[in-house]
Amino acid sequence: MHQITTLNYILAKINVAYYINKCEICKRTKYERHLPEISLKLIEQVDKPFQQINMDLFTIEGTTFLTVIEAFTKLAQAHQVSSKNAIQICDKLLIFFQHYGVPEKMTFDSGLEFQNDTVKKLLETQNIKAHFATPRHP
Residue 25: pLDDT above 70? Predict the structure, then answer.
């Protein structure tokens, strides 16, 4: 009895798949359920400490933190910020620069808290190259 039930299930599944693959309306309205794979790219290697730092914001239990990760040594820090605005970001960056020096390059995500005139002017005055990463693709 179990074999008959299993066979009926398999045949029904094959019939449904066959019908959906032949149906023109189904073909037009069907969407891909798997995300397209994004090809990986090599990230530039750094030669010395504090040549490049990577930054991002994250919130946990209502508290927002600015994370700073140095690319060579992997030194990581989290600085609490009261809001996600350019002034807070620049204040924390200046404190970081006072302790460790000014990097050559900084990588951010594409958030508006990083892509604005205030942060841009700070980076220009310190002669820092900015790299804005796309989601899931540094």
Answer: yes
Mean per-residue pLDDT over the chain, rounded: 85
Cα–Cα distance for residue pair 63/80, rounded to 1 Å: 7
Could you tell me the end-to-end alpha-carbon distance of the chain, in angstroms, rounded to an integer?
A: 55
Amino acid found at 107: T
The model's pTM is 0.65
63-85 tens-digit pLDDT:
999 999 999 999 999 999 998 88
Q: What does residue 80 show for φ and ψ, rounded to 5 degrees? A: -70, 135
Q: Residue 78's pLDDT is what?
A: 94
- Domain locations in the chain? 1-31, 52-132
In eight-state DSSP terms, residue 19 is H
Distance, in Å, from the CA atom of 44 to the CA atom of 101, rounded to the nearest integer, reads 21
Stretch (H or E) spanning 121: helix 117-125
CATH of 52-132, one of 3.30.420.10, 3.40.30.10, 1.25.40.10, 3.30.1540.10: 3.30.420.10
- Evaluate whether 72 touches 48 at the Cβ level (below 8 Å): yes
